[in-house]
Amino acid sequence: MINPERFHKIRRLLEQRQPDLTVVMDNVNKPHNLAAIIRTCDSVGIETIHAVSNRPSIRKKQKTAGGSTRWVQLSLHESMENLANTLKSNGTRLLAAHYSSTSVDFRSIDYTRPTAIVMGAEKLGPSSDTISLVDQAIHIPMQGMAESLNVSVAAAVILFEAQRQRLAAGCYEKIALEKETLEKRLFELAYPSIAEKLAMQAKPYPPLDEEGRLLD
């Protein structure tokens, strides 16, 4: 039986999730960076993030990092093109964190719109193929000798700007997750062991009362 206070905290977390804001990690492979980005995504209310790599070794690291937290769902992909097409078909705009002659200051973007922020591999940034698929490149202005920030730090800077804008717009005050999705995730987060067993048996989750008690 889950503590009612914790149950209400989890429900409140899900009620503030922003399903139309996400991050795409393009071949990001260092475990500490992956884990840091995932923690930041949880902090700003992101429900699902994406990781792309055509190399099994990188996908294994990405999957391991995703398993380090149950609060954010990680979806793995082998093709950036397929993922980009899927996101765009849902009305999501793709922004690549990448400095170029056509990139714009990250603070000039309206992050209250459905947005996917693409973060590239350490040192190299997003691949040229990825850059060709996004709608806009953005950059963080730098006044020092360093040309760029660590990928996890850059992701945090951009994501907390997105959070700032969404807080000001009242995005966190309305429930954005679909009711069925919210209830499913609520059960999984409140009763992870039971949820895992039921999923393996292809059985539905039992309903919960307002205090998180199992009704069946």
UniProtKB/TrEMBL annotation:
Keyword match Methyltransferase: yes
EC category: transferase
Alphabetical keyword list: Methyltransferase, RNA-binding, S-adenosyl-L-methionine, Transferase, tRNA processing, tRNA-binding
Span of domain RNA methyltransferase SpoU/TrmH type C-terminal: 164-215
Catalytic activity: guanosine(18) in tRNA + S-adenosyl-L-methionine = 2'-O-methylguanosine(18) in tRNA + S-adenosyl-L-homocysteine + H(+)
tRNA/rRNA methyltransferase SpoU type domain: residues covered: 21-160
InterPro entries, A to Z: Alpha/beta_knot_MTases, rRNA_MeTrfase_SpoU_C, SpoU_MeTrfase, TrmH, tRNA_m1G_MTases_N
GO biological process: tRNA guanine ribose methylation
E.C. number(s) listed in UniProt: 2.1.1.34
Molecular-function GO terms, alphabetical: tRNA (guanine(18)-2'-O)-methyltransferase activity; tRNA binding
Residues the record lists as binding S-adenosyl-L-methionine: 140, 149
Name of one Pfam family that matches: SpoU_methylase
Protein family membership: Belongs to the class IV-like SAM-binding methyltransferase superfamily. RNA methyltransferase TrmH family.
General function of this protein: Catalyzes the 2'-O methylation of guanosine at position 18 in tRNA.
Record protein name field: tRNA (guanosine(18)-2'-O)-methyltransferase
Taxonomic classification: Bacteria, Pseudomonadati, Chlorobiota, Chlorobiia, Chlorobiales
